[in-house]
């Protein structure tokens, strides 16, 4: 009889211990301890918004690889609140490195990719950048509510 009651007690104690271990790390720390995440965002292109290619390319989002190995970003998506979506083609970001996704047109190079848009994506008065894995899972997000200096340091 003691064995029957000890097993449920042991299971309850193990479950309680596991539950307390799961809550030990804050959610924000757990989300950014490693992996790929949003870095700094230049959501308001400096100067007057002229829609010139150089002005469009001065609006960008950094994506940082915080892992110890390169990450293939093919199929990853960057989205704003209105649904504008940039989907990465084949692009490797090295360990500890950052890639800037520029709004305008340009030639892909080390650390720089281009959305190839003719108009701005990020709203100066408030928006939310979302980084989404190829499987559709939200990997990271970063939002702002008003125009300040035109930049947001997400992490």
TrEMBL record:
Q: Which residues form the LTD domain?
A: 23-146
Q: Which UniProt keywords apply?
A: Signal
Query: Which residues lie in coiled coils?
Result: none
Please indicate if the UniProt record lists Signal as a keyword. Answer: yes
Which InterPro entries does the entry link to? Lamin_tail_dom, Lamin_tail_dom_sf
Signal peptide, first to last residue: 1-29
Asked whether the keyword Signal is assigned, the reply is: yes
Q: Matching Pfam families, A to Z?
A: LTD (PF00932)
This one is known as Lamin tail domain-containing protein
């Amino acid at each position: 009889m003691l064995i029957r009651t000890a097993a449920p007690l042991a299971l309850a104690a193990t479950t309680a211990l596991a539950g307390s271990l799961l809550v030990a790390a804050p959610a924000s720390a757990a989300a950014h301890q490693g992996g790929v995440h949003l870095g700094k965002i230049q959501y308001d292109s400096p100067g007057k918004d002229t829609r010139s290619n150089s002005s469009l390319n001065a609006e960008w989002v950094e994506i940082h690889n915080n892992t110890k190995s390169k990450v293939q970003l093919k199929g990853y998506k960057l989205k704003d609140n209105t649904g504008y979506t940039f989907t990465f083609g084949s692009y490797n970001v090295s360990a500890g490195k950052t890639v800037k996704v520029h709004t305008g047109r340009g030639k892909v190079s080390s650390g720089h990719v281009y959305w190839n848009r003719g108009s701005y994506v990020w709203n100066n008065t408030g928006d939310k950048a979302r980084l989404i894995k190829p499987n559709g899972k939200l990997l990271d997000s970063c939002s702002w509510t008003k125009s300040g200096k035109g930049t947001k340091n997400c992490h």
